[in-house]
Design a protein that fits this description.
single chain; mainly alpha
Length: 95
């Protein structure tokens, strides 16, 4: 019998899909704190993949990650970043 360890957060139906393939799995329901920890880990994984896709798209279009970063920096200089945590509700024209 072959056993593979994953130790990661998976989608809700994954145990059902594994069982449907005739395999067994060991799972647990996480505490709220551990769940948030694992969501953060999943996000890190997805962000790494997203950065790789951005790099590949830039390269495929004849650009580079350096050019994308220059564009990001120019926008940040002109309009700012997101560090201020500003949430815009609405904008009104003066009467």
């Amino acid at each position: 019998m072959t056993t593979r360890r994953y130790e990661k957060l998976v989608r809700d139906r994954i145990p059902e899909i594994i069982a449907g393939n005739g395999q067994r799995c060991v799972c647990e329901t996480l505490s709220d704190a551990r769940y948030l920890e694992m969501l953060d880990a999943k996000l890190d994984e997805e962000l790494a993949d997203l950065l790789e896709v951005i790099r590949a798209v830039a390269q495929a279009r004849g650009s580079s990650i350096k050019a994308v970063e220059a564009l990001r920096a120019a926008k940040a200089e002109a309009r700012g970043g997101f560090a201020g945590k500003i949430f815009l509700h609405e904008v009104s024209d003066p009467d």
